[in-house]
Amino acid sequence: MTQCERVIDYMRKYESITPLEAMRDLGVYRLASRIHDLKRLGHVIRTEQTKVPTRYGTTTTISKYKLG
Length: 68
What we know:
The chain is of the alpha+beta class. 44% of the residues lie in helices and 29% in strands. The chain has one domain. It is built from 3 helices and 3 strands. The chain has a 3-stranded antiparallel β-sheet. The longest helix is centred in the first third of the chain and has 12 residues, at 3-14.
């Protein structure tokens, strides 16, 4: 199974994916590149910016990808 196939399957099952989930659950370290590939193949994928806490008590913004 290719990385793109793993990413699209994950999004179908869990509705979205973040870079951390891609690394942890799929071993995909360049999620934005795989999303680009999937879009080029015709998949409609939305990008949402989400704020998440850091271990230092601040927040950072990450991309969350959803089918649709």
